[in-house]
Design goal:
three-stranded mixed beta sheet; binds the ligand N#[N+]C[C@@H]1[C@@H](O)[C@H](O)[C@@H](O)[C@@H]2O[C@H]12; 444 residues; 13 strands; alpha/beta; 15% strand; eight-stranded parallel barrel; 15 helices
């Protein structure tokens, strides 16, 4: 098996609303998650990101932990409303100052920053103007991106425009289980289209001022038919279009899959097709967020893809109920290369929620997470050996954190966080990852 290149990035990932806390500190504006998490019933236990991991104040302690872990890269997101409180207008120097200090502190430890411009926390003031349903949203995002390019491109060399826009559109506008909590197929399709236009706006803006590399992080999930029945095979094919190609094709090919308007029917924004060509602003790399595969059966009632997910009885599951399926990562990476050509790829998220025990004598034994990471890194290594231009791996997540609608009930961290005391405890999986990084990924 081929080894990992010496230039390989061994990282960990987080996002602003999930770890920072202090959402309104120093002039920051509210985000849609600050508002959504306060609505009764939206988040398990009524949890909010008000404290989270208190990273806004403890970032130096956390960077010291990153240095201990031995990672050479760290993926984080910027809270848009911290930097531009009303989303499109006056800059908040104190908000930008936090990220300026964060980047400097990372570089001082030899840790490469990978900056995500948007990880689901739209400024609430822009939601009041229609949010991602407003055709102006792409320009709002481009203006915001420009602010960060000007301020940080002298030190940030890896940029991501959006994190999982499919989740933003589907959970935020179709199922309503994420902020802003809207429920409509037409809204989801329109939000998705504007998110894609926003991505292109930022990439185009970057080409004018940026000196480094920019991409996007997509949630990609291989779809398998639960049986050889034609209807299940067709349902898996429909979901493959819905989950994977709906975003990959416009970003990389400049056109929506022909099947997408059929899936959405009358709810598809017709004008979108004419403007799809605008979305293909060439990117420098693709971020792949991989967690699991989907096992699909036909379900005529399921909108829009008419497929339902099932689990094999003998499947190994994480605490999220997701099947542990590392071979799906290899297959997805190889498929991307076959379908879209040579493109540098980073695994921008991979990790597992586990039912970790509480810390005991300074240790948290989470062998399941260590095994998950090891198996997926072997799968990544397999893809490398078969020609995928894989540049790095970011474990999700550095810290236990606010898991969106699950609140603090699901723990993905390499490092345990006691949210009452904010005490950090590296788990067994952190030590596993640290040792692996020390070996450059050898002897997996
Ligand atoms: N759920 N889950 C874990 C993880 C979530 O915490 C991230 O914010 C998302 O980018 C992606 O969904 C993956």
């Amino acid at each position: 098996m081929i080894g990992f290149p010496t230039s390989f990035l061994w990282g960990a990932a987080t996002s602003a609303y999930q770890i920072e806390g202090s959402p309104l500190a120093d002039g920051a504006g509210a985000s849609i998650w600050h508002r959504f998490s306060r609505e009764p019933g939206r988040v398990v236990g009524g949890a909010t990101g008000d404290s989270a991991c208190d990273h806004y104040r403890r970032y130096r302690e956390d960077i010291a932990l990153m240095a201990w872990l031995g990672i050479n890269a760290y993926r984080f997101s910027v809270a848009w409303a911290r930097v531009v409180p009303d989303g499109n207008g006056t800059l908040n120097p104190k908000g930008l100052g936090f990220y300026d200090r964060l980047v400097d502190a990372l570089l001082a430890q030899g840790i490469e920053p990978m900056l995500t411009l948007y990880h689901w926390d739209l400024p609430a003031a822009l939601e009041d103007r229609g949010g991602w349903l407003n055709p102006d949203s792409a320009k709002w995002f481009g203006d915001y991106a420009q602010v960060l390019f000007q301020a940080l491109d002298d030190r940030v060399r890896l940029w991501l425009t959006l994190n999982e826009p499919w989740v933003s559109a589907v959970l935020g506008y179709l199922t309503g289980t994420h902020a802003p909590g809207r429920r409509g197929l037409r809204e989801a399709a329109l939000a998705a289209h504007h998110l894609l236009l926003a991505h292109a706006e930022a990439v185009t803006a970057y080409r004018a001022v940026g000196r480094h590399r920019i991409g996007i992080a997509l949630n990609l999930e291989p779809q398998y038919a639960a049986s050889a029945q034609a209807e299940d095979v067709e349902a898996a094919a429909r979901r493959h279009i819905y989950v994977n190609r709906w975003f990959l094709d416009p970003i990389l090919l400049g056109r929506y899959p022909a099947e997408i308007p059929q899936l959405f029917g009358a709810d598809w924004p017709r004008r979108a097709l004419q403007r799809a060509g605008l979305i293909r602003a060439p990117i420098d790399f693709l971020g792949v967020n991989y967690y699991s595969r989907a096992l699909v059966v036909d379900d005529p009632s399921g909108r829009p893809a008419r497929g339902r997910l099932v689990k094999r009885r003998d499947a190994q599951l994480t605490a999220m109920g997701w099947e542990i399926f590392p071979q799906g990562l290899t297959e997805m990476l190889l498929w991307i290369r076959r379908e879209y050509g040579e493109l540098p790829v980073y695994i921008t998220e991979n990790g597992a929620a586990c039912n970790d025990p509480l810390p005991e004598r300074g240790r948290v034994l989470d062998p399941g997470r260590a095994r998950f990471l090891g198996r997926h890194l072997i799968a990544a290594q397999e893809a490398l050996g078969r020609g995928v231009d894989l540049r790095g791996y970011f474990a999700w997540s550095l810290l236990d954190n606010f898991e969106w609608a699950y609140g603090y009930s699901k723990r993905f961290g390499l490092i345990h966080v006691d949210f009452a005391t904010q005490r950090r405890t590296p788990k067994m999986s952190a030590r596993f990852y640290r040792n692996l990084i020390c070996r450059g990924g050898a002897n997996l």
